[in-house]
Amino acid sequence: MDDEPKIRHLVGSYLERDGHTVLLASSGAAALELSVGADLMILDLGLPDRAGLDVARQVRENLDMPIIILTARAGEADRIAGLRLGADDYVGKPFSPGELVARVAAVLRRSAPEGPAGGARSFGEGILRIDDQRREVCVDGHPVAMTRSEFDLLSALAARPGRVWSRRELAIRIRGERDGGAEERAIDAHVKNLRRKLDDPPAAARLVLTVTGVGYKLGVPCDD
């Protein structure tokens, strides 16, 4: 997240080339909205609507997600404040995009869950399993082949089961801030295809629910 468009898109392009799915935000409020279900946040301290350290504090209070601070504020006091809030790394501007990508990879490696099933999530007493690391989905024990957009859509819904996501929110999570407007118009089509693949057995029909006039939600809870 950065308030400068050129830097946002530069960082996003480098991360996408490295195989990451990127969500871009130009404000603290947007970043907090998109942070649910994300693997890592790159955070600028100079934001238009609120202090970056306040965003970091709120993320750290609610989510177990690594944070890399990217900012022109390279003074010792700012570095110490960021690290005390739990930031996992601190990169000062100007910076090397290639080095930033390498730091992202290093932080993700350090924060990755241990064990082969670390990326798997189970929902609805095992009827749905999502492995984000392998990008695999199983319904009632049977693998379901999905396109990239279908998987990203399901993974977004599963980030907070029961929470209603608007089409705009889902579009941003699938394609990022740059293509959100165009992709928003395709969300209904993605949901239709996703349901067609998930609704066998019939018990799976309650997985993706429509909330009239609002959007969609995952209809089964996460298995603890």
Sheet with the most strands, sense and barrel status: 4 strands, antiparallel
Task: Please report the number of helical segments.
Answer: 9
Q: Can you list the strand order of the major beta sheet?
A: 4-5-6-7
What Rg, in angstroms, do the CA atoms define? 18 Å
- How confident overall, as mean pLDDT? 81
Query: H/E order of the elements?
Result: HHEHEHEHEEEEHEHHHEE
Fraction of residues in H or I helices = 40-55%
- What structural category do the secondary elements indicate? alpha+beta
Note the overall shape.
Answer: elongated
> How many beta-strand runs?
10
Unreliably modeled segments: none
Alpha carbon gap, first and last residue: 31 Å
Strand content: 15-25%
Structural description of this entry:
By secondary structure, the protein is an alpha+beta fold. The chain has helices spanning 5-17, 28-34, 52-62, 76-84, 97-111, 148-159, 167-175, 180-184, 187-198, and strands at residues 41-43, 67-71, 89-92, 120-123, 128-131, 136-139, 142-144, 165-166, 208-211, 215-218. The protein contains nine helices and ten strands. A hairpin with a 3-residue loop joins β9 and β10.
